[in-house]
Amino acid sequence: MTLLEDILNYNVRFVEDKEYENYKTSKVPTMKAVMLTCMDTRLVELSTKALGFKNGDVKLVKNAGATISHPYGSTMRSLLVGIYALGAEEIIIMGHKDCGMGGIDVDTVLGTMKERGIKEETIAILEHSGIDLNHFLGGFSDVRENVRANIDIVYNHPLFDKSVPVHGLVIDPHTGEVELIQDGYAKVISK
């Protein structure tokens, strides 16, 4: 049986047993926050449970490295929509120790792409078109600095309401211990 078949079979039982009732909530976050964190498998539940959040408390945005790679990309859009359309009043940016994006080797990633059939000419066309694959696929060397850099992107965005606190955290994926990088209340600008 394939993964997809397993998922679909499980879903039939989930619906029949009305397990969804355990997760009913509104689309507005109860704790009025939107959180950006990494897609690391260790954080699927840990990222919210370690902070005391339950289903419906927070809007959750996940990507590789908890990184805003472009100020007008989907991650920043999600944070802005969380604030302006979905009732969030605070942002949490939470990186984690032992992140796969920390020191990722772009040459290895490109090599794997080529092994899986991406042609060298495709990579050359992208680079010739001005796409910096080292930046696009690259990571960071210091998770704390990455969190700070993301906070700066948010605060410097022309569409961002500077009265919204942006908190910076780093979580240990083994213990759930959280380190405060920035208290967003200390940086907000009063209206």
Description of the structure:
- With 191 residues, the chain is α/β, with parallel strands linked by helices.
- It has 2 domains: 3-98 and 141-184, Beta-carbonic Anhydrase, Chain A; 105-138, no CATH class.
- 35% of the residues lie in helices and 16% in strands.
- The chain contains 7 helices and 5 strands; from the N terminus they run H-E-H-E-H-E-H-H-H-H-E-E.
- The chain has helices at 3-16, 46-49, 74-84, 106-115, 120-128, 133-137, 143-155; strands spanning 33-38, 58-63, 90-96, 166-171, 178-182.
- The protein has a 5-stranded mixed beta sheet with strand order 2-1-3-4-5, with helices on one face.
- Strand 4 (166-171) and strand 5 form a beta hairpin.
Q: Could you give a quick summary of the protein structure above?
A:
It comes from Macrococcus carouselicus. Helices cover 35% and strands 16% of the residues.
CATH class of the largest domain: Alpha Beta
Spatial ordering of strands, largest sheet: 2-1-3-4-5
Average of the residue pLDDT scores? 95
Q: Would you count the extended β strands for me? A: 5
Specify the overall morphology. Answer: globular
- Count of helical segments? 7
Evaluate the radius of gyration: 19 Å
The end-to-end span amounts to 57 Å
The CATH homologous superfamily name of the largest domain equals Carbonic anhydrase
CATH architecture name of the largest domain:
3-Layer(aba) Sandwich
Q: Give the ordered list of helices and strands.
A: HEHEHEHHHHEE
Instruction: Outline the biggest β-sheet.
Output: 5 strands, mixed
Structural class: alpha/beta
Q: Return the domain count.
A: 2
Assess the beta-strand content as a share of residues: 15-25%
CATH-derived topology of the largest domain: Beta-carbonic Anhydrase, Chain A
Family: Belongs to the beta-class carbonic anhydrase family.
EC number: 4.2.1.1
Cofactor: Zn(2+)
Catalytic activity: hydrogencarbonate + H(+) = CO2 + H2O
